[in-house]
Write a structure and sequence with these properties.
This protein is an alpha+beta fold. The protein folds into two domains: 247 residues, FAD/NAD(P)-binding domain; 136 residues, Translation factors (Elongation Factor Tu (Ef-tu), domain 3). It has 13 helices and 21 strands. The strands form five sheets. Strands 1, 2, 7, 8, 9, 10 and 20 form a seven-stranded mixed beta sheet that branches. Strands 17-16-13-14-15-12-18 form a seven-stranded antiparallel beta sheet. α1 runs parallel beside α5 and α1 packs parallel to α13. The longest helix has 14 residues. The two termini are 18 Å apart. The mean pLDDT is 96.
């Protein structure tokens, strides 16, 4: 059962890499431990798959290693390149805000594109095929030999000159996500940066839950940022009974660390000071001013915690300034995040210093490649992580 290439992982990166290698005439074996391919593809984008973002650049990715690492792969396979494949297959698509591209109809169309490309290029796919753990201790039965790699699975023993790991991260464990890729990297002596949930909702601290949990369902335009200045996003902010969600929160979560406060500008594009001063006549209070721009329930809860219970006209300059600053930089310290079951991606992974940015081959283990989410490269919300899957899969697929 010899092959030129074994790819472990039947998600976006693995499937695309397999089709690229197969198109070169390589004998490719794709192993997937679940009964179906592309489970995360099918649920993405609300079932319509946000398959890329036309604005994707290296600046849209978080890595604890070199921020330059994603540049090569992204430059050599662009969003326009994947869009061309979508159009060749006759898949109708549309663009939403922030240059996000979605299927008009179904995520299944993207999965069908990838599966068809693999079939057309002679890729062999094995479903329900698990790599076996070692019988004599921790780890997996994957070995480097004189001529390549030997992989022992529930379906038999397979060998190949090249081995590509495309098993993804830890998000969505209900869809079969596991630490396999990170563990295998460690087994070969590679560094793995600490992992944590990314693009994930944040939860209220106990001191905030009672007051703000009843705001569940409220969505506002806001700027969420970190005190450190490491991240700032103007997007929709959604209040939930558990905490904060919506695109603004998910974006910031890629950069947020436990114990760190987040800042919310409740009035982006407006001057809180001017708003308050404009409402200082007639004995009006802070609530009356804020109702002009914010939902009533949010105004009530926020003012209960942060606004003096007296007319604006009676506020001192110091009080007005403090109130204005708080409206533009309301600080909340989340108790944590909702974890991998609610996270769209995993932050951290195989250290980029271990890999070639052009081929994704391990510098210290020739013939071994890591692509996609298993690598310590995490994209913003909005199609960036799919573009990383395509770009990294293409880079490895051209050389394995």
């Amino acid at each position: 059962m010899n092959h030129d290439v074994i790819i472990i992982g039947g998600g976006a990166a693995g499937l695309f890499c397999a089709s690229v290698a197969g198109r070169r005439g390589r004998r490719v074996l794709l192993l997937e431990h679940r009964a179906r391919l592309g489970s995360k593809i099918l649920i993405s984008g609300g079932g319509r798959c946000n398959f890329t973002n036309l604005g994707a650049t290296a600046g849209n990715y978080v890595t604890s290693g070199s921020p330059h690492f994603p540049k090569s792969a992204l430059a050599r396979f662009t969003p326009e390149d994947f869009l061309a494949l979508v159009e060749q297959r006759g898949i109708a698509w549309h663009e939403r805000k922030h240059r996000q591209l979605f299927c008009d109809h179904s995520s299944k169309q993207i999965l069908n594109l990838l599966e068809s490309a693999c079939q057309e290029t002679g890729v062999t796919v094995r479903l329900n095929c698990r790599v076996l753990s070692r019988a004599d201790g921790p780890g997996w039965q994957v070995e480097r030999t004189d001529v390549g790699f030997r992989v022992v699975t529930s379906e038999g023993v397979f060998t190949a000159a090249s081995l590509v790991i495309a098993t993804g991260g830890l998000s969505f464990p209900q869809l079969g996500a596991s630490p396999f890729g990170h563990e295998l990297a460690g087994q070969f002596g590679l560094r793995v940066t600490p992992t944590r949930p990314g693009l994930v909702p944040l939860i209220w601290a106990p001191a905030d839950r009672e007051l703000f949990a009843p705001l569940s369902g409220i969505a506002i335009d806001a700027v969420m940022s970190l005190r450190s200045g490491a991240a700032s996003f103007r997007e929709a902010l959604l209040f939930t009974h558990r905490g904060l969600s919506g695109p603004a929160t998910l974006q910031v979560s890629n950069h947020w660390l436990p114990g760190e406060p987040v800042r919310v500008n409740l009035l982006p594009g407006h001057s809180a000071a001017d708003l308050l001063i404009a409402h200082r006549t007639g004995g009006r209070g802070v609530k009356a001013a804020l109702r002009q721009l914010l939902p009533e329930r949010l105004v009530q809860a926020w003012c209960e915690r942060h606004a003096p219970a007296k007319p604006i006209a009676q506020l001192s300059r110091v009080e007005l300034d403090a109130l204005s600053r708080n409206l533009h930089a309301w600080e909340i310290t989340p108790a944590g995040d909702e974890g991998y079951p609610k996270a769209e991606v995993t932050v951290g992974g195989v250290d980029t210093a271990e890999l070639s940015s052009k081929t994704f081959e391990c510098r210290r283990v020739p013939g071994l490649y890591f692509i996609g989410e298993v690598v310590d490269v995490t994209g913003w919300l909005g199609g960036y992580n799919f573009q990383w899957a395509w770009a990294s899969g293409q880079a490895a697929g051209l050389v394995v």
